[in-house]
Amino acid sequence: MSPSTKYLLTFAFLLSFPGFLYAQETEKVYLSGKGNDQTVTWDFFCTAGRNSGKWTTIAVPSNWELQGFGKYDYGFAKDTTRGKEKGLYRYFFNVPAARKGKRINLVFEGVMTDAEVKINGKLAGPVHQGSYYAFKYDVSGLLTYGAANQLEVAVSKHSANESVNDAERRGDFWLFGGIFRPVYLEVLPAANISHLALDAKANGDFKAMLTVAKTAIAGTVSAQVYDSNGKKIGVPFSSKISARDSIVYLQSKTISPRLWSPEYPHLYKVKVDLVLNGKITHTVSQKFGFRSIVVKEKDGVYVNGVKVKFKGVNRHSFWPSSGRTLSKKLSIMDVNLMKDMNMNAVRMSHYPPDDHFLDVCDSLGIFVFDELAGWHGKYNTPTGTKLVKELLRHDVNHPSIIFWINGNEGGHNYALDADFDTGDIQRRPVIHAWENFRGFDTQHYREFDYGIGNYMQGHDLVMPTEFLHGMFDGGHGAGLEDYWEAMWRDPLAAGGFLWDFSDEGVVRSDKNNEIDTDGNHGADGIVGPYREKEGSFFTIRQIWSPVFFEKREITPAFDGSFRVENRFAFTNTMECTFSGKLVKAADPYDASAGNETEFSIVSPGIAPSGKGTVKLNLPSNWKSYDFLYVTVTDPHKRLIFTWSWPISRPSVIADQVVKQRGSGKVETSGVDSLFIVTANGVRVSFSKKTGQLRQVENAKGVIGLRNGPVLQEGATNFSGFIQKMDGNNVVIESVFDKKNSFNTLQWTIYPSGWIKMKVLYFPGAYFTSFVGVNFGYPEAQMKGVQWMGNGPYRVWKNRMKGNQLGVWTKAYNNSATGEPPFLYPEFKGYHSNMYWCRFNTTEQPFTVVAEQEDIFLRLYTPKVSDDPYNNLAPAFPSGDISFMQGISGIGTKTQKTDTTGPMGMKYSFYDYEKDQNRAKELVLYFDFSGR
């Protein structure tokens, strides 16, 4: 490092000290940046892998793999550099001479994995082992005041302590190395309050436990509580201390405090002064919330006296370009995304998070289950005891934390449970993830029928800390409605946590900056690596809505009333905002034909867990619109969801769009194998043997839709075709035969050029994954679609929620969920409630209109992603474009489709002995005019 660089660092460090005006408060002076959006350059030497064997520089905090050093490793991969890959850090800083006599701690918020720290060539203390825990050294006696100091940190990617490797490094997640969280100096008076732990109950009882250091004389500690606006709450309270005291308690009572909960995250602040010789020697301040957690055996979890169910997700600390080095901005983003999905809880899998993430959970409001690391392995007792103490010391005062988790999936050291119990002033509950422990059954990935052990069949509280394991587009929203409704109804169900929040894709600088999810290992998220929203995001938002609309059909007799259930724990729906909108949809040929009318709705007064009615003040002409929307926002103006209902049925829209009549004439011709019909410039050919569409053309050229309809699942046994006139229309239809041609096809060609297809059919099996018809159309010629129906995301049989009715436009893409380029919504797949669809192609457009409700539009077959478990297995017809009356579900990483609940099961149909009057009917209209 050059002298000028040292000078600049020294000068910047001097400026960072606020000076002696506020010397009674703890000073925090950063030697690193505060996150991935604000870093400081340190000297760096990597011992193995990329860019190793030379001194260079690195951004701190960071994971060195994302800075171009060492080797990328996923937890399941064989690490060829284990024991060899280390990072050597060096940094110079200055401490003003005026700080001599102070207590100066060197604090590391997180280092992966073993950290040997030296100041001016001398060890600061024992090597720290354990990645995710803040640790500190008193370096007061090692510093040279008023001159440059050299900080050296030797970081081993893997630990010399095998129990640390078992707990942290041998897991189903990316492995990184480095000083990945901030580093700073903590400057305190010699006599100081070294730690403050709070317990603030819902009844207003307040208790503080202080650790006081180096008080050579007697004195007092005095405290004052403030609200979020800085207003004093109550009167000061204090306690005397003697020269021998190290632990001091303060107590007070706040009358009718505003309680902390995810719905109303009210925060307070306490300011505590250490007073010696009549002077304030040291002051500490701490935010907190009044709230109580009580677990009632064989009953439930009560927060502030209210029984709650957890709508949670698992979250790794992760960002594609910086690994586990994050920022407060990203924490705010993540918590907002969770709350946008109507979640109220997050599990810290499988290690404690950044401090700023917990701060955001406190301020925005979300329950936190904080976890001691341990994937399938565990810390030994001496190591675990030390790390539990560090975890509790760092996180104890966050009101968002309501549970501790001692390890995951067998990574539980039972000897550490008592350390949580005795070390936490609040005595929060302790659970083991994936174990029946202390009255909680937290087993992971159980099938919907809960047929294993006591799961939903016993007497303990059921709270899976992982369920519906996402992979690509499976899990999460798929299956959630069945699970959640069962959980909501069962008094012993306390909710659960989806796996997991985001796809863990790493930017690989060694692979042209591609995003690598290690195949299917990291593609488990509801959102993408950069938080791209997948379809399940919106499904979860609707299913976990705290305002629940009972199913209601809109008919001419509709009086504007909906039955509503309030699934909030603490909020009356009167505090929410309800608004309505009527939508007249555009048609395929005139976007200006659509219009909207908004109207107000009086918010109903329904108490938490209650049911009631919301009444819409609809305008008199509401029946002339196509769709009804109701939007609800919470008391903080956050969108809960927008529901939509059809007013106009597809048959009504079909009558408006389809022009069956025309002034022209339908002409017929043919060859040995084809019926050929021409009307209004459209020429179509049908097979005389199968009735299938063979070719379409108009004055502009050929349209490539052909080779349909093909029944799936069912026998395409149309036969005995005849051609006849029906007034001015030409009809081509098959003959019904109960034994050999029990499925029938009829084409009607109108003088306008519109063509009607009517299929009467029997599904081919008692149990089937899908039913409908499909056609061929070259994928290379598809540019995009515009459709009226539910959108814009695709659906599965067990993931129908989350979309809205409307007119949607989507350009062709080949996106596969959970894989680069993470472009959503995906083009391919099933889309529900199709009224009509206009296909935009490289040839010319064509339009298809449905006459029945509940028609699914299928657009090609999505990519088959890497699924070694063969659990996702969505079924698709053999053609390219399909119009279905039943579609397949999708499984999860750990479950087959049909074990995610009734919605994932196959359809069942009777064949009614092939009675044609009982056949399923599908009617479509085609416009091949090219307009």
From TrEMBL:
<dbReference type="Pfam" id="PF00703">
    <property type="entry name" value="Glyco_hydro_2"/>
</dbReference>
<dbReference type="InterPro" id="IPR006101">
    <property type="entry name" value="Glyco_hydro_2"/>
</dbReference>
<comment type="similarity">
    <text>Belongs to the glycosyl hydrolase 2 family.</text>
</comment>
<dbReference type="InterPro" id="IPR050347">
    <property type="entry name" value="Bact_Beta-galactosidase"/>
</dbReference>
<feature type="domain" description="Glycoside hydrolase family 2 catalytic">
    <location>
        <begin position="298"/>
        <end position="417"/>
    </location>
</feature>
<dbReference type="InterPro" id="IPR013783">
    <property type="entry name" value="Ig-like_fold"/>
</dbReference>
<keyword id="KW-0732">Signal</keyword>
<dbReference type="InterPro" id="IPR017853">
    <property type="entry name" value="GH"/>
</dbReference>
<keyword id="KW-0326">Glycosidase</keyword>
<dbReference type="Pfam" id="PF02837">
    <property type="entry name" value="Glyco_hydro_2_N"/>
</dbReference>
<dbReference type="Pfam" id="PF02836">
    <property type="entry name" value="Glyco_hydro_2_C"/>
</dbReference>
<comment type="subunit">
    <text>Monomer.</text>
</comment>
<keyword id="KW-0378">Hydrolase</keyword>
<feature type="domain" description="Beta galactosidase small chain/">
    <location>
        <begin position="732"/>
        <end position="847"/>
    </location>
</feature>
<feature type="domain" description="Glycoside hydrolase family 2 immunoglobulin-like beta-sandwich">
    <location>
        <begin position="202"/>
        <end position="291"/>
    </location>
</feature>
<dbReference type="InterPro" id="IPR036156">
    <property type="entry name" value="Beta-gal/glucu_dom_sf"/>
</dbReference>
<protein>
    <recommendedName>
        <fullName>beta-galactosidase</fullName>
        <ecNumber>3.2.1.23</ecNumber>
    </recommendedName>
</protein>
<dbReference type="GO" id="GO:0009341">
    <property type="term" value="C:beta-galactosidase complex"/>
</dbReference>
<dbReference type="InterPro" id="IPR006103">
    <property type="entry name" value="Glyco_hydro_2_cat"/>
</dbReference>
<dbReference type="InterPro" id="IPR006104">
    <property type="entry name" value="Glyco_hydro_2_N"/>
</dbReference>
<dbReference type="GO" id="GO:0004565">
    <property type="term" value="F:beta-galactosidase activity"/>
</dbReference>
<dbReference type="InterPro" id="IPR014718">
    <property type="entry name" value="GH-type_carb-bd"/>
</dbReference>
<dbReference type="InterPro" id="IPR006102">
    <property type="entry name" value="Ig-like_GH2"/>
</dbReference>
<dbReference type="GO" id="GO:0005990">
    <property type="term" value="P:lactose catabolic process"/>
</dbReference>
<dbReference type="GO" id="GO:0030246">
    <property type="term" value="F:carbohydrate binding"/>
</dbReference>
<dbReference type="InterPro" id="IPR011013">
    <property type="entry name" value="Gal_mutarotase_sf_dom"/>
</dbReference>
<dbReference type="InterPro" id="IPR004199">
    <property type="entry name" value="B-gal_small/dom_5"/>
</dbReference>
<feature type="domain" description="Glycosyl hydrolases family 2 sugar binding">
    <location>
        <begin position="56"/>
        <end position="188"/>
    </location>
</feature>
<dbReference type="Pfam" id="PF02929">
    <property type="entry name" value="Bgal_small_N"/>
</dbReference>
<feature type="signal peptide">
    <location>
        <begin position="1"/>
        <end position="23"/>
    </location>
</feature>
<keyword id="KW-0106">Calcium</keyword>
<dbReference type="InterPro" id="IPR008979">
    <property type="entry name" value="Galactose-bd-like_sf"/>
</dbReference>
